[in-house]
Amino acid sequence: MTQTSPATFKAAMIQMRSGLKPAANLDDATRLIGEAKAAGADYVQTPEMTNLLAANRDQLFAAIVEEEHDTSLAAYRELARKLGLFIHVGSMAIKVSPDKAANRGFLITPAGDIAARYDKIHMFDVDLGNGESYRESRNYSAGERAVLSDLPWGRLGLTICYDLRFPDLYRALAEAGATMLAIPSAFTRPTGEAHWHVLMRARAIENGSFVLASAQAGKHESGRETYGHSIIVDPWGRVLAEGGTETGIVMAEIDPAEVTKARAKVPSLQHGRRFGMAEPMAEAAHLHLVRE
C-alpha cells in the first residue's frame, strides 16, 4: 500500500446532526472521529455547534458551562491524545457570563493541548423571508480577534460559518500566511442551497488557499434544518470532496504544494492595493489578528 507522503496529509470533515444533549453529541462525534482516524486522517474538523444546536435560549443556557468545566472539551482533548491527531472542534457553545455565550472553536494538538481558540466574529442576525429568523447576538458575544495557528503542513486560519460572507477576514488571514481556511458551519438549508458552494469556492480561489468546511446536516431536534454538504476545496477552486445531507465523514488528501502553484498562476495576494473612498465614510472597525 502506498504511504501518504510526509509533505501531504489527510483531512477529514465530520458531518453531524447535533441535538440538545451534549453527551449524545459527544458520543456521535467521538465515533466519527475514530472512523476518520482509522481511515488515515491526520486532521479532523467538526462543525459549528458540535456540543449542541439549540434554538431556544432556555435550552441553550441550561446545557452549557464555562470552558474550564466543559466535560465535552476535556473529552476531545483526551481523544486527541489517544488517537494522536489534530482535532479541530469547529465550535461549541461556551458560557462566558450569566446571559451570554461564546461561539468558540478549539484547535487541539495530538498532545491534547489547545493550540488556538477562536470566537466567531460575525453574528448571524437575519430574516430569511420564509418565516425563518435568527438573532445570534441575543445569546452570543461576538469575537474581536482573527486567529491563525501553525500546523505541520501550513498555517490555518480559523473562522466559523457566517464569517464566510465577509471576504476581508479571509484576505487578512491569507496575507498573514494562512494556506488553509477552516469554515466549520451550520448553514440553513435555504442559504446553503443558494450560496454554499459559490462562497466556499470563492474564498479558496481569491486567496489561493485550501478551504476545509465541516457542516451540520439534516433536521435537528431543535427543529432547525441545516444544509450539510461538508466540503474540501483546493486553492484553484476545485472541489476535492463533498458530503450530502446525512451524517458521516468527508475526506481528502491535502498537498500544500498546491497553494504555491495556485498563487504563482494568479498572484493576487501580491497585487492588492489600499484605496480611499470618493465620499467620506465612517472609519471601519479594525480586527486584531493574532497567531496562536
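the 2nd protein, sequnce then structure:
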Amino acid sequence: MSAHEIDYRIYGEEMQYVEIELDPNEGVVAESGSFMMMDDGIKMETIFGDGSRKDESFLGKILGAGKRILTGESLFMTAFYNVLDGKRNVSFASPYPGKIIPIDLTQFNGKFICQKDAFLCAAKGVSVGIEFNKKLGRGLFGGEGFIMQKLEGDGMAFVHAGGTTAKKELKAGETLRVDTGCIIGFTQSVNYDIEFVGGIKNTVFGGEGLFFAKLQGPGTVYIQSLPFSRLAGRVLASLPKGGNSKGEGSILGGLGNFIDGDNKF
C-alpha cells in the first residue's frame, strides 16, 4: 500500500470526533482547524498540499495548492506522525453537528468524489485534489456542487456531514435527484449532472432553488440532511435586526426593550 494503514474509532452522536491510532512512523493528514487532541509522541508538521507525492516538483506542488484555493481550502495541510515506539492516538473533530463517515478507498476503486468542504482527515499518502465538472451547465448553475474534491489512493479517508446521513446504492440506470448542497459524495462510477427544476410556480415560489443534482447509477451516494450553508442561513435569518436579542420570541419582547432603554426615539 502507498498510503499508511491506520486504525480508527469514531466517538459521539451529534458532535462526533474520530480517534486515529498510529503505529510507529505512521501518519495522518488533516485540514487546518480540525485537530482536537493527541498523545505525547505525536509530531505535528505543516505541509504544502497533501504531501502524497514526495517526488513531485515544486511547480507541481504550486499547481496543486492553487487548485485547493479553488475549493476554498487552505494552501497548507497538517500532518501528524507517531515518532515514538508503541501506538499513539490523535483525534479530529467535526466542525458542526452531524456525522463522520469513514471511506475505505480500496472499496471504491481508489477514488471518491465529495463536496469541497466535506474532507476531514486521511491516512498519509491519500491524495486530496479537485474534480472539475466538465459540462457548462454544471459550472454555471451547480452552486455548491460545481467544484468537488476527489480523494484518491488506497488508504482510509474521513468526511463529515451535517445532520443525518443516508447511503444510497444506485443500480445501473437508476436515478436520484438531490439538492446540490445535500450531496456528501459519491463513487466515480456515478454520473453527475445539474437539472432545471422547471415550471413557473416552482421557479418563482418553490423556495428550493432553480436546479438540483441528478445522480445516475451504478454506484454509491452519500446524502446529508443539513448542509452547512443551510444551517448558516437559518442562523443568520434568525438573528434579530440591529443585533438586539432581548426578549426574542416573546410578546413582551418589545416592552422589555423599552424598559431597558434600548428603544430610540
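Confidence is low (pLDDT under 50) at residues 136-145, 202-207. The chain is about 15% helix and 40% strand.
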